[in-house]
Amino acid sequence: MRCRSGADQGTATAETAVALPGLALVLAVSLAAVQAVATHLACVDAARIGARALARGEPDTAVLSLVAQVAPDQAETDLSVDGEFARVTVRAPVHLGPGATAPVIVGGAAATPAETRN
User: What does the alpha-carbon distance between residue 85 and residue 101 come to, in Å, rounded to a whole number?
Assistant: First the structure.
């Protein structure tokens, strides 16, 4: 059995106490990044669904309803048809948990060729 000197006692505890806040910060940033990616993907999916509906000639209210079903909470949607393409853009803040929102807004956009009716 080894005999430790009095100066070495408690160093492992002190090193752990210094490292834990850094590990917690890395974990928090990682979880926020995952949530930001999930929000971005939801915005892209909502924009794609909205662009398809708008290209088919659905009324704006129906398109907004479809987008709202897929988009994250508090998402903003912009619709436009420029003759050739139906374009939908969806933007939403990143929610980190109950009552916590990151100061980051992510979004997605989609454009679909407008259908012509003969």
Answer: 33
